[in-house]
Amino acid sequence: METVIGVTYPIPKKFVERFFLEGKTVFIKPGRVFKELKPGMKFVFYQSREDTGCVGEAVIKNIIFEKNPLNFLKIYKEAVFLTEEEINDYISNQKIWTGRGANKKDGEKRKKQWIAIELIDLKKYTQTIKPARFVSVGGRYIKG
User: Which CATH code for domain 4-143?
Assistant: First the structure.
């Protein structure tokens, strides 16, 4: 059985460029594919929407969780690849997509956890690599 060696997430091109051109080092998103991730594993940047494919990689330095993603801005400041306005837009869009923006369990609303993945050793590939399998919006483990 193959073991998890990393993760890949789709990131729109305009945001991927922030990692390689602006020095951003913290990726955030609602946590879905994360339970098997550990520091030292690989993070592959899957560029979505245009010129799709894997465009670079990094090493996961640290992983933290928060119910309020705006707290990541307090922790990591300018290293977060999204702005406060973009995070608020993301939260608003989630509510539209799900109809509520939170899971219900036992009759109460429960906020989804957000994940912050701090990255080091970022490397941009010289050519875009098309993955063998589709990368869903939630992300996908890399096994090896």
Answer: 2.30.130.30
